[in-house]
Design goal:
This protein has 15 helices and 21 strands. Helix 1 crosses helix 14 and helix 7 packs across helix 10. It is globular and about 70 Å long.
């Protein structure tokens, strides 16, 4: 593929690093000769000094014959204009990075459609999804991407008072529409069958409709639901996106902001969050806010050194889980040694999102729920899927321990029942054991490919 990348910053450079090994022809445009010189030393790509929003500069970079343009500068308006210009010049696919929620959510105007842009990617939003997913369940981010927030996934420990105890799956009467994808019993995970009986202490991975999911989780553990306490440090754009993402999870969220003006600005905008003006590094605020009772502490300021220090400090003060946000990989190798549980990079999540949008395979592996036991697969159903089209799910001979977890049909995403059918044009998420791709490909009449539109790359 011929690829043009606008911006030689963290996201643009990392995008090039990931795509270059797959053998693509890449040209990076930036107004800084120094940044381009750094890129030239690191990888074999073309570079061009200039404004990526100017048609003449894009033409010099070969945009008119390009398969893909990725606009990844730090300025939303420049990215949007660059993509619009590229599409006007004949570029096949244009993806714009944006920060501001007004652009990403299309408030007042669908910017992507109006400007002819194929996709908008917001690294902060994707990172917020990833952090929220880490707080809920392995593989939750994959469901989030598939279902656009309409389907929830969480791991819940079954309490002694749960009405589910002693019942086989076929007799469960959880509120709303939901299913159990995986059960961990005494530390051993397995995919349940319809006659599997729920026991006290089981950790169940539950998929359900996001609307009313809190009631679904309470069915399994009323004591656990709604009690998780989260502390976020920083008043950054990333923190705001994370607060918004956590709102629908019904968590107790406190945000510690060192800048008083920023704290006053965000307090009325994030009414579901307890906003506190405090300096975590130079005060006893962690002790005062009982970080030892927090289920998770997330450091999300714009300074990654501060994030690492604060996350490590919170862990030593008793936080169950400690996370931090990092842009550069410089300190990534230190995370484990200083006691921080997880690090998240908007730069890396942005590139993963770019690759996901460019992955046009009909069948692909989404995520692992439990290593070797339960995997998530996505299938785009075509008219060649003669073995499944028009049949009730209960009548389809799926691979052993495989089930349909969710179906996307048009604008609707839902969790199907045994009497529902699959139609051509649907996209389905299936849960099943590892290495069943060949069986699924045969069942759905699709070719099995190990390479995406951008090559077999990893981040």
């Amino acid at each position: 593929m011929n690829i043009v990348i606008c911006g030689a910053g963290e996201v643009g450079r990392h995008t090039a690093e990931v795509l270059a090994p797959a053998g693509h022809s890449i040209t990076i445009i930036d107004q800084s000769p120094a940044k381009l010189a750094e890129v030239d030393e690191l990888m074999d790509v073309g570079s061009l000094v200039g404004s990526c929003a100017e048609a003449q500069v894009q033409l010099a970079a070969g945009v008119d014959k390009a398969d893909l343009l990725v606009a990844a500068t730090n300025v939303d308006e420049v990215n949007l204009l660059s993509c619009a210009v590229a599409k006007g010049l004949g570029c096949k696919t244009a993806i714009s990075r944006v920060h501001h929620s007004g652009f990403f959510e299309g408030r007042g105007l669908d910017y992507a459609r109006h400007l002819g842009i194929d996709h908008l990617v917001c690294p902060e939003y994707t990172t917020a999804q990833a952090i929220a997913a880490a707080l809920r369940s392995p593989g939750a981010i994959a469901v989030e991407n598939f279902a656009r927030g309409k389907v929830e996934m969480q791991r819940v420990e079954v309490s002694a008072s749960s009405k589910a105890v002693g019942l086989p799956l076929r007799e469960l009467k959880a509120p709303g529409t939901s299913l159990i994808a995986c059960i961990s019993r005494a530390g051993e995970p397995f995919v349940p069958a319809a006659d599997t009986v729920i026991q006290q202490g089981d950790v169940v991975t539950v998929l359900g409709e996001a609307k009313g999911f809190d009631q679904t989780s309470k069915y399994y553990n009323a004591e656990q639901s709604g009690r998780r306490k989260i502390i976020i440090m920083g008043g950054s754009t990333q923190s705001v996106w994370l607060c918004r993402e956590l709102k629908r999870l019904n968590l107790s969220v406190r945000m510690l902001i060192s800048d008083e003006a920023r704290a006053k600005e965000l307090a009325p905008k994030l009414e579901w969050v307890t906003t506190i003006n405090a300096d975590v590094i130079n005060s006893d605020v962690l002790q005062e806010e009982r970080v030892d009772q927090a289920d998770a502490f997330i450091a999300a300021t714009d300074d990654e050194e501060t994030n690492i220090l604060a996350a490590a400090l919170a862990k030593t003060r008793g936080a169950k889980t400690s996370m931090c946000v990092m842009q550069r990989p410089t300190y990534l190798h230190l995370i484990e040694h200083v006691g921080v549980d997880r690090a998240f990079s908007p730069r890396a999540t942005a590139v993963i999102e770019f690759l996901r949008l460019l992955d046009h395979r009909d069948l692909r592996h989404l995520a692992t729920l439990s290593e070797g036991i339960a995997e998530l697969y996505e299938v785009h159903v075509t008219d060649k899927a003669e073995q499944v089209l028009g049949k009730k799910l209960a009548e389809i001979e799926f691979p052993s321990h495989c089930l349909v977890a969710a179906i996307n049909r048009g604008e609707s995403v839902y969790i199907p029942g045994a009497g529902d059918t699959i139609q051509a044009g649907d996209t389905a998420v299936l849960i099943g054991p590892a290495k069943i791709e060949k069986d699924l490909a045969k069942l759905f009449g699709t070719k099995l490919s190990k390479r995406s539109a951008v090559g077999a790359v990893s981040v």
